[in-house]
Structure formats: structure tokens, C-alpha cells
Amino acid sequence: MPASLVHLHTNNCSSIFAHPPMLIQTQINPTLKIPSFSRKPIQTHTLKDICLRGNLKEAFQSLPVSSNDHPDETYAPVLELCAQKKALSQGLQIHAHMIKSCSVSESVFLATKLVFMYGKCGSVRNAEKVFDQIGQRSIFTWNAMIGAYVSNGKPFEVLQTYKEMRVLGVPLYAYSFPSLLKASGLLKNLYLGAEIHGLAVKFGYDSTVCVVNSLVAMYAKCDDLFGARRLFGRIDQKDDVVSWNSIISAYSSNGRSMEALELFREMQKAGLDSNTYTAVACLQACGDYSFRKLGKEIHAAVLKSAQLLDAYVAGALVAMYVRCCKMSEAVRTFNKLEEKDKVAWNSVLTGFIQNGMCSEALHFFHDFQNAGEKPDQVTVISILVACGRMGYLLNGMELHAYAIKIGFDLDLQVGNTLIDMYAKCSCVNYMGYAFNRMPDKDLISWTTVIAGYAQNSYALKAFELFREVQLIDIDVDPMMIGSILLACSELACVS
DNA sequence: GCTGATGAAC
Fold first, then answer.
1. A189: CB within 7 A of chain B nucleic strand
2. Measured between alpha carbons, how far is A59 from A55 in angstroms, rounded to an integer?
3. Can you give the residue ranges of every domain in chain A?
4. b vs e for A385-413, b when ≥16 Cβ sit within 10 Å of the residue's Cβ?
5. Which of A63, A172, A340, A379 could make an S-S bridge to A176, C-beta 3.0–4.6 Å?
6. How far is the CA of A350 from the C1' of B9 (A)?
7. What is residue A28's predicted lDDT score, i.e. its pLDDT?
8. Are A256 and A271 in contact (CB under 8 A)?
9. What Å value separates CA A121 and C1' B3?
10. What is the mean pLDDT of chain A?
11. CA at A91, C1' at B10: how many angstroms apart?
12. DSSP structure class, residue A286
């Protein structure tokens, strides 16, 4: 690309000629000035370049063996690279290297980088350990810590840290808000979100584009679409793709396809380029059969624009075809994927089940296992549903054993599906066992188990559990009443 | 130096 070369070239020139007085001095005695450039900065600069190139192995080989005079410049780029690659074991090695050369405790900058690296690599505990040891924390340190919490799905910890910041009087800066607002959204705590919104106004960051975008997302996650729309409407310069993506995604994830797609059209009219996030949000809105044509159009546009299909876009495409009951298209899209991740596998799997193709789902599960994938909760739930519908008790039990082995049977949703599977396979004893083992039970658990007993002619057992439901504070739902009526007719009692 | 918006299930 000639244009970027020219750009780079002029940039270098401007930095060299940025200090004319120096230049005058060097002109007096140029030959002596040249060797006075120390070798150190050149070395660390190359390490930074290696890191920018993204080769972790090369970066490791270029690390100085003993302690050096520029720990910040040495370690910061390597830590950043570890974070980018989510390379925890390498990050730990760098941390060890740093301890050996005594450069962690003195530098808040490097300690903050460590917190950031551990957060990105998914090790909240290590991030906390480093964070706790830092005496004088900067606002960057606090932001790195709450960022680590929020990106690892720990909104309660964000809330706690936020309270600590308030008590200590740490002033919030622009970049504190996105993480705090995301945590409010994860907690669906509109009250907290509004409080943080208030602080953003107080500190004067409510017009900062990333803060506004985070606010839009927060209100949407807290089911306040009106609030999200009002904020989006107040943005003067609507020229940021993320702002549009936030509001489109707000509508599409709340099932408001029409509004989402109207906003997408408006965005196109404004002449803004969409990206993968836009595609995902729009595809989500194309779940309705009536939008299948638009979904195909977006599919075509995506194929045209991206050389390599983004994992999220691919997943959204598969999910879109599933919702439009186009399983052959879904499978075709899935097969074209170079990197098939778990969500993509699960989308196809649940697609088969939603479309009543249980034996296809079981076949597909064999492919899943042959590909060396490990089932997660969603996979287990899908296969249990298929087993139940097909009446495959032995396969269901096998999956139950697997679920127990890795502790999934304690999961509420997995437990509920196990109850349903055993009920459908008329295996009442194991159904009761699965139900009793559940540490938490919700309305669906009770409804499913009562229906299971009633449908398998265990009317008295159904009554017994119904009485228990009335004792604990759970609302009775129509499904449950239906099961109890069935049990009544079984016993021919009308009382 | 830290930051914002994405795909799956009973």
C-alpha cells in the first residue's frame, strides 16, 4: 500500500525534525553525537516491535536474561501481548521473570499491566492478588480491576469495588464508566445503572461517546428501551458505528425486529459502514420467517465483505436459519465454517431439536464428539431433550452419568431437563432421584416433576408434591393445575 | 497505559 508507506515515512521525518535546537547542536559535532545514542532504547524498541508483530515466542526469546534499566518498556509490551493472546501460562512466566528482576513492586504501571493481563487471560484470582498488593493505586489500576471483574462475568465484585472506590474517594474517570455500566446491565439493576448515569453527568462524562454507548446498552439490558432510545436520540453527531450497533442490538435482543431493522436502514442512509456487530444484531432481528429474505441479503453482504467469516457472525447466521426453520441452510453454513466453536455446534444441535428432528440431533451429536468437542450445559440439555422425545432411556442415563461426573446435574436447567427426560421415558424412580438431588429448584422444576408423576399414573405422589408446593412460597401455574386435574381423573376424585 | 456494542438451551 503506497499510501501508508508515505504516511509512515512522513511520520518518521516529523519526529526526527521535531527538535530543531538539538539538530543545531549535532551539526556542530556530528561524529561524536552519533555513538552517544545508547543501545538500550534501540533494543527495547525492537522488543516492542516484535510484540506489535504479535509473535509471542519471538518476544520471549528477545527478553533480556538479567534485570535491566527499563523494566516498564521491557515488560509492558510483552504483558499486553499475553493479554491479547489470552496466554495465561506465558503471562505467569513473565510475572515470575519480573519478580526475579525485582521490578513489580516499584512500578504501579507494571502492576496495573499485570492486573490487566490476568483479567484478559480469565484469571480473576491472580488479578486480585496483584491488585491487593499495590499500595498506591492509580485510577488505571482500579479501572483494570473492575474491567477484569466485568469481563469475567463477576458484576457483584464490580459493585463491591465500586463501593470501595466511593468510600476511598477515588474520582471516576471516563473509562471507569463502561465497566460499571456493563456490570449494572449484567445485574439488570436499573437503579444502580441510573445512579452511575447520574455520576457520569456530575463528572461531565455523559457526552463522551463510549460512556453514552455504554449507557444505551445498559438501559437496554435493564429492559428500558425507552431510556436507551432517548439517550441515542440525544447524541448530536451520530457518526459512531458503536452507537448505532448499541441501539440496533438493544431492539433486536428485545425481540423488536421491526425497529431494529428500521434503524439499520437509517444507519445505511447516514452513509455509515457497518461491521460484524451490526451484522450480528441485524441477523438476530431476522429470526422471524417474514424477514428471511433480508437475512439472506445480509448473508450475501457478509460473504462479500469478509474474507474470513467472523465466529459471531457465523453463529448468528446459523441461528437465523434455525429460527427460520431452514435447517439445510443452517447446516450448509455450519459446514463452511473453518473454526467451528461450541456455540455454532450448539446452535445447529438446538436447531434440530426445535424443528423436531431428534434423530438428526443425535447423529449430529456423534459428529460433535468425533470432532473432539466437550459437551457443555447447552449441549447436555439439547441431547437430553432428544433422548426424552425418542424414549432413549439408556442414552439419557449415560448423559446423566456424564452430567454428574462434571457437576452439571447441579445446574438448574440441566436438572429440569433431566426430570423431563426421565418422565418421558417413564422412569419415575430416577426422575425422583434427579429432582431430589437438585440444590435449587424453580417453578419449572416443580411443574415438570408433578407432570411427570401425573402422566406416569403416580397420582398420589403428584398430590403429595403439589401439597409441598403450596407450603413453600411458589406460585402455581396452569401447567401444574393441568397435571393435578389429570391426577384427579386418575383417582376419580373430585374433591 | 485503562474503555463501549455481538451468536446457543429446559
1. no
2. 6
3. 237-339
4. bbbbbbebbebbbebbeebeeeebbebee
5. A172
6. 7
7. 34
8. no
9. 18
10. 83
11. 39
12. T
Interatomic CA distance for residues A239 and A494, integer angstroms: 67
Residue with the three cell numbers 429460527: A323
Answer yes or no: is A123 CB < 7 A from strand B: no
* A276 CB contact with strand B at below 7 Å: yes
Q: Is the CB of A139 under 7 A from strand B?
A: yes
Strand B proximal to A214 Cβ, under 7 A:
yes
Q: Which nucleotide across the nucleic acid strands is nearest to A249, CA versus C1'? A: B5
Phi, psi values for residue A193, rounded to 5°: -60, -40
Asked if the Cβ of residue A376 lies within 7 A of any atom of strand B, the reply is yes
The pLDDT > 70 percentage for chain A reads: 82
- C-alpha distances in Å from residue A179, one per residue of A26, A159, A203, A287: 49, 10, 16, 30
Task: Please give the average per-residue pLDDT across A423-445, as a whole number.
Answer: 94
Q: Which one is predicted more confidently, A123 or A485?
A: A123
The pLDDT, as a whole number, for residue A201 is 93
Amino acid present at A267: M
pLDDT digits (tens, 9 = 90+) for A374-414: 999 999 999 999 999 999 999 999 999 999 998 898 899 99
Determine which of A292-296, A450-454, A475-479 has the lowest per-residue pLDDT on average: A292-296
Asked if residue A126 has pLDDT above 90, the reply is yes
Protein A234 CA to nucleic acid B3 C1', in Å? 21
Q: Which nucleotides of B are covered by protein (CB under 7 A)?
A: 1-10
Distance A153 CA to B8 C1' (A): 18
Cβ contact A273:A301 at 8 Å:
no
Cell numbers placing A424? 418421558
The single residue listed with the C-alpha cell 470432532 is A371
If you compute the radius of gyration of chain A from its CA atoms, what whole number of angstroms results?
A: 29
